[in-house]
Design goal:
- The complex is a heterodimer of chains A (about 400) and B (about 260).
- Chain A has one domain: Cytochrome-c3 Hydrogenase, chain B (Orthogonal Bundle), CATH 1.10.645.
- Chain A contains eleven helices and twelve strands.
- The longest helix of chain A has about 30 residues.
- Chain B is globular.
- The chains are: A alpha+beta (about 400), B alpha/beta (about 260).
Chain lengths: ~400, ~260
């Protein structure tokens, strides 16, 4: 970047449409303002007046990259409002659904979005010419994740089988069983991916981030629930979310930027989860992480790609475990009885904590909605400011 | 022997969730085959239409919600031989067209502390409101197999083979028992275009119309079937106000149920 004026009208492979309008002078990026030009989509406003049961189907349309996450956060928030706590096989299948979402989304990010930058290719299509084996492996993993989501959800993007309380229909036992062998092959592929990305070269860079992620009270890596914790002392029930985290509107962006009241910007996603939950990864995933040169904490954001591949491996491992222990429930969903109240839901989208809050009237009609997407939690680094993706 | 240059395919994103565009990657096996048959000239999210040549096929995802979008879609149309829209946003304005029923400034003030920082047009509009569209592929999201069919049809100079009939026909083809007749579940299938494979009824729920209106839908008649199932006036309006709320037959029907 030395003495070079840099300007980007659109950063490629960045969700939400992001521009860097200012020039970069000298060797340092001086107060760079990212501009988010993806227009505001006003989801929180149009949700008002809709019925609670419509929220999973509407909010999934916020992101085609992690649609399952919005459905899960919406379901958990509604169930919280109604005083429900869905356990047992339905909870297990929700974790399995999340495994599918992580595998496809992580494999997509690793192979299509991030690897091209590390390997000096303009995009994934060029990468496929130089590294055909690796890209095909990535596509196989994407397919594996999509197959899980399709089986449980009816289709890979904007699934139709997810409802408050559980599912419309349980998958056939034979359908679940048929995934196991494929998942074992996918787990081998994911291990190969960990080894591949571990060989990339990474600049030395370890900023003092505040990592925020869910931490489950059970002995499990977080997907759907837990307390919201950080490495700098945050430790809250998600019902206290709004007392500790706030969103502000920055002038150069169509999106909101989320910060922790006391300390400012924070970091979510694979690396945050990993740093706060390493001991809850499966033995295989821990072993692969160590072999890839990671400790139980990883501070270098460039190495996020290794952490992401470790999580992909974990998701394959966890999916196999869930299917092998799964017992078919009597009915596909818990009974739902709507009443007035406010509910909170927080789940781990592939790219980090996704928060939903709904206030409902006595018939379950939405009076107020708040949605904080993981991408609004972009940390400020080297003067780079600004929330990233359009949440609403 | 000279090799003919490969046809150039570009994918452009407007205001959307990226889901339809990802449908292309979701074609996994077919993706690399397709990538071999065409030159994918642009796939970056939100790329600018400035430095481009002529494209044989432009796939356009998303709806028009800013002045900048309006300028960009005209530039893309000028540079494209065929312009094919993918998804409900591009065909009907998408879920964002719900704003068209409200005052957008009021909505913006609910979401944003500083609505003056945001830039948006009053309405979310389909691509065909602005430029000529050669083909609209429906769905929220699109069906990836239909996408492969449409791209291959345009590459071979033939009409895409997609059915304009209702979801009901797909249920019959699939052998799904009618959820409305057998279980009394309200279903938009009779008014909705096929293409999804009738997934919802196969999962015991009613269709919610994500592929938009079929050709000549009789939405008024569907209402008379829904009422005995216990669906009231506001819910009838809501049923037609989802991802294709801006499509004319659905818009008219939902408006007729407003107090």
């Amino acid at each position: 970047m030395k003495s070079e004026a840099a300007k980007a009208n659109c950063l490629p492979r960045v969700e939400g449409g992001v521009a860097l309008p200012d020039t970069i002078k000298g060797e340092r990026m001086a107060d760079l303002n990212r501009q988010l030009f993806e227009p505001s989509r006003l989801f929180e406003a149009v949700l008002r007046g809709r019925t609670f049961s419509e929220a999973p189907d509407i909010t999934t349309r916020i992101s085609g990259i992690y649609p399952v996450a919005h459905q899960m956060s919406a379901c958990h928030a509604m169930e919280d409002a109604f005083g429900m706590n869905v356990q047992g096989p339905i909870r297990d299948l929700r974790r399995l659904l999340y495994c599918g979402q992580w595998i496809s989304s992580h494999a997509f990010q690793i192979h299509m979005l991030h690897a091209p930058d590390f390997l000096g290719c303009k995009d994934a299509i060029l990468l496929a010419k130089v590294y055909p084996t690796e890209v095909q492996r990535g596509l196989r993993l994407i397919k594996m994740g999509n197959e899980i989501v399709s089986l449980l959800g009816g289709r890979a993007i904007h699934s139709i089988n997810i409802r408050v309380g559980g599912f419309y229909k349980m998958p056939a036992r034979s359908g679940l069983d048929s995934l196991v062998e494929k998942l074992k092959r996918a787990r081998d592929a994911a291990l190969e991916t960990v080894r591949w990305v571990a060989k990339f070269s990474f600049p030395e860079f370890e900023p003092d981030y505040e990592f925020v992620a869910l931490q489950s009270e059970e002995d499990e890596y977080p997907f759907n629930e837990g307390r919201l914790v950080s490495n700098k002392g945050l430790d809250i029930n998600i019902r206290e979310y709004d007392r500790h985290l706030v969103e502000e509107h920055v002038p150069h962006s169509n999106a909101l930027h989320s910060t922790i009241k006391e300390r400012g910007s924070y970091f979510v996603g694979p690396q945050a989860r990993y740093n706060l939950n390493f001991d809850k990864l499966s033995p295989l995933a821990q072993e692969a992480a160590r072999a890839a040169g990671l400790g139980s904490v990883c501070l270098n954001p460039f190495r996020n790609i290794i952490v992401r591949s470790v999580e992909t491996l974990y998701a394959c491992d966890e999916a196999i475990r869930i299917i092998e222990h799964f017992e078919m429930p009597d009915k596909p969903a818990a009974n739902v009885k709507a009443h007035a109240g406010t509910g909170y839901g927080c789940t781990e989208a592939p790219c980090g904590v996704l928060y939903h809050r709904f206030s409902l009237d006595k018939n379950g009609v939405i009076l107020d909605a708040k949605i904080v997407s993981p991408t609004s939690a972009e940390p400020e680094v080297a003067g780079v400011k600004g929330g990233r993706t359009g949440q609403g | 022997m000279t090799r003919e240059p490969k046809p150039k395919l570009a994918i452009w994103k407007f205001t959307s969730c990226d889901g339809c565009k990802l449908g292309l990657l979701d074609c996994e096996d077919q993706f690399l085959v397709m990538a071999g048959a065409v030159e994918i000239a642009n796939f970056s999210p939100g790329s600018q239409a400035g430095a481009m040549g002529l494209y044989d096929i432009a796939l356009v995802e998303g709806s028009i919600t800013t002045q900048h979008d309006v300028e960009r879609i005209h530039a893309i149309r000028r540079a494209s031989k065929f312009l094919v829209t993918i998804g409900a946003c591009a065909a009907a304005g998408g879920i964002r067209a719900l704003r068209n029923f409200h005052d957008v400034k009021e909505l913006a003030s609910i979401v944003h502390a500083r609505p003056d920082y945001t830039q948006a047009l009053d309405k979310s509009t389909p691509i065909a409101d602005h430029v000529f569209v050669d083909f609209e592929l429906r769905g929220c999201p699109i069906n990836k197999m239909q996408l492969v069919e449409v791209v291959s049809a345009f590459l071979n100079g033939r009409k895409p083979n997609t059915s304009p009939h209702s979801v009901c026909i797909e249920c019959k083809l699939r052998g799904t028992v009618c959820v409305m007749v057998a279980s009394g579940v309200p279903c938009l299938g009779p008014a909705t275009q096929a293409g999804c494979g009738a997934i919802c009824p196969a999962y015991t729920r009613g269709c919610y119309g994500c592929f938009g209106p079929k050709e000549t839908p009789n939405t008024a008649s569907l209402n008379t079937w829904w009422r005995p199932l216990g669906v009231n006036q506001p819910d009838l309006a809501g049923a037609f106000r989802d991802f294709n709320a801006g499509a004319e037959p659905f818009r008219t029907e939902s408006n007729s149920h407003e107090k």
